[in-house]
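Troubleshooting: if your tokenizer reports a length mismatch, compare your output against this known-good record of 226 residues.
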Amino acid sequence: EIINCDIFGNGFPHSGSPEHGMYISTTNNLFDGNRIYDNWGWGVHQFSGPGIDDNIYRNNKFFMLNFTSYDGSGEPGRVKGDGMILSSGSRNLVYNNLFYDNGGGLKVGNDNANDEFDNEVYNNTVYNNGNGIRIAVDASSTIVKNNIAFQNTEYNISDSGTSTVLSNNLTTDPLFVDAANKNFAITSNSPAKDAGTTLADVPTDFLGISRPQGAAYDIGAYEYVV
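Known-good structure output:
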């Protein structure tokens, strides 16, 4: 269990290979309530071949604050690090996470025929990254439901996988409370409100509030509360 940690500042070494915040290479881990930021590679990289299964990633923040000088180098031409990649493994569950201001948001698969299958991506909020949610060509039977993916530069949701299930995702303006100040709760007139589907694996929201609060689940990491 990796809970309520700050994982940050893993830099770009002189070898030219970006460093990740954390590698996950084992099964049945819980990754909950962490802040993962200012890492030059992926914030979390699940990788090491087949068999890295049944991990849970929930209620985490993946973001970039300072991507040019936190390590004191000031080198030009750098790019923002990315949020999270499931480049190996199956039956992993990713829900109620926030991905914002990264070079990339969330990726399932690694474009190298590892055959990641049956991974689930639920109720995440993915905002203002270089790209949003990407399902790569080697991923099969990925389920992507109830996610907000908005204002990502390259695309909001991209699917090159096999037998992907996409439903109840929102890629238009969700009417956040205050995105400029990183408040990604939704307002009363948000199109995300009561627009999700019921998911037994997601009984609460990012703040631990039970779902649903209204007629149906809300889309994104937060439930609207009166």
